[in-house]
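Data card: per-record layout.
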Amino acid sequence: MTIDEARQLRAIFYRIEATAQNAAPDARRSPSHFTVLSPIIQEKNFMSYIKILCEDCEKVHQILRSEMEYEPVDSEVREMGEEITYKGSFGIECDCGKAIKINHYFWEYPQGIENHKATEVSGGTPVENTL
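The structure for this 131-residue chain is written out next.
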């Protein structure tokens, strides 16, 4: 599933949820309201990784989740509290000179639970992904 498909599904789900609760479908908080990344999520996924095959030379690179810097990029108040979208980015240059970039998104909801994730890669192809 691509990140765009995931966003479309989430938007549909939120509209259904908002309609059921008679709430505004776009009740979002500003970035100043984000909470700190949950320690439960940090511990659970510290050693997860992605292996990427360079699209030019076919060398395999492994990136650990702990090497990625995550930041909250979106937040929404829902029935069981705040849902927070995090984005982690990492870029490397292959020995052949090809730039490889990874964007990993995950959604924490309810607090302490990773309920969805998506990964985008440019410059290579994921061959194994446990992020």
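Known properties of this structure: Residues 64 and 131 are 8 Å apart (CA to CA). The chain has a mean pLDDT of 77.

See the next section for split statistics.
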